[in-house]
Amino acid sequence: MPHHQYVEHKYTRWIMLVLRLLWSHAYLWVMLHAANVVPKVNEHLESSGLWSHDHKILLSYKSQIGFSLRGEILFLFKSTGVALFLYLYSRCSFYGYCVTRKMWDTFPYPLLMLIVPYLASFLYQWIKSVLITFWTLAILIGICDGDSMRYLFLEFAKVLFFKILVLANFSAISLRTWALLKILDEEPEQGIVNFSNLGEHLNVFLRI
To answer: The domain containing residue 193 runs over which residues?
Structure first.
């Protein structure tokens, strides 16, 4: 039965490769949308008597990135650039194994152009959403009373804490990936058999 076991292993690696590629795209998609979460102000009046009403302000949260075919195609290009950068820089095979070989004498700076669109988009969306959050808070401070202020500050503290967690996660994954790439870069440049494919490298880099 060794041949049967080998075939099953082959298809298992293909399946895991496809799943890890999908998980990588999903992770990058979630991080980009999480970076763009902003508070949304909902105002409504509640009757407190025959002639009086209470002005209530409630906050909800949403991502400013709309769901459109054009936007999803642009994201697909950005996330594919990230995966392609990791694939080329780590010198792994797409599937199966390969013998590493020297591909460049110095750091391949042109490869950075593959990840710049996604990194720039993430940082832009994160900074913009934080500025919108503070601007919304500044506006609401001028129109709310003491009871509402406690609720607003609590809600804004939650969303800012969430934004910090998103940035911390993104920074940790980026630094971890860069450190691992530098370790791979220090290994012998050629003649080493690499049995890990792209999916297994993505699992190490992105922890998916």
So the answer is: 2-206
